[in-house]
Amino acid sequence: MKKIFQTSIAILSLIFVLSACSSQKGTVSSNVSRGKFVGTWTLNNVSYDGLVQNAVQRVFDQAPPEAFVGSTWKLTNSGNGIYTLSNGTSQTIFWSVYNGGSTGTQFQFKKLYQGDKAKEVQEGYRLDIASNDGSTMTLKSPVAIGGGTGYIIYSFSKSN
């Protein structure tokens, strides 16, 4: 009986070691390549999930969400960028992709003003990356409502 027990423990240990060393083929990395963001993007649509339209009056401390429809976002590989609203208002930004944490992968940016250095600006914005295939992109901005979370959904298409 003791021999069967020892053999069973040895086999279980071997199975455990082999399963721990094997590759995990079913997992997909949530990391999104920075290169998929580089280029000029047009914000085609703003929609809402769990929020009623006009529930949020200002986004990015600038304008209502609908004012961003038709805006262009030029993002360079260096992290510099600029977005221009359809009314001609432009804003210089420094952007990056945040991979990790419990929030998942996020697009983040800081607004820069004349003379600002990105490393000195402490405040910014993070949007959840719902998808980015290099030609279309969907970003979701979480908004706390009551005891839950609603989202403003931004749908982009790449211009170049």
The protein's oligomeric status is: single chain
CATH architecture: Beta Barrel
- C-alpha end-to-end distance: 72 Å
Biggest sheet descriptor: 8 strands, antiparallel, barrel
Query: What percent of residues adopt helix (DSSP H or I)?
Result: 10-25%
Question: How many H/I helical runs?
Answer: 1
Work out the radius of gyration: 22 Å
Number of domains: 1
Broad shape: globular
Q: List the uncertain runs.
A: 1-29
The first-level CATH class is given as Mainly Beta
Q: CATH topology, what is it called?
A: Lipocalin
Name the average pLDDT: 82
Strand content: 35-45%
Biggest sheet, strands in spatial order? 1-2-3-4-5-6-7-8
Number of strands: 8
Protein structure class: mainly beta
Write the layout of secondary structure elements.
Elements (H helix, E strand, L loop, with lengths): L1 H20 L17 E11 L22 E4 L4 E5 L5 E9 L7 E7 L12 E8 L3 E10 L2 E11 L2
Antiparallel strand pairs: 1-2, 1-8, 2-3, 3-4, 4-5, 5-6, 6-7, 7-8
Spell out the key features of this protein.
mainly beta; Lipocalin; globular; single chain; disordered N terminus; 8 strands
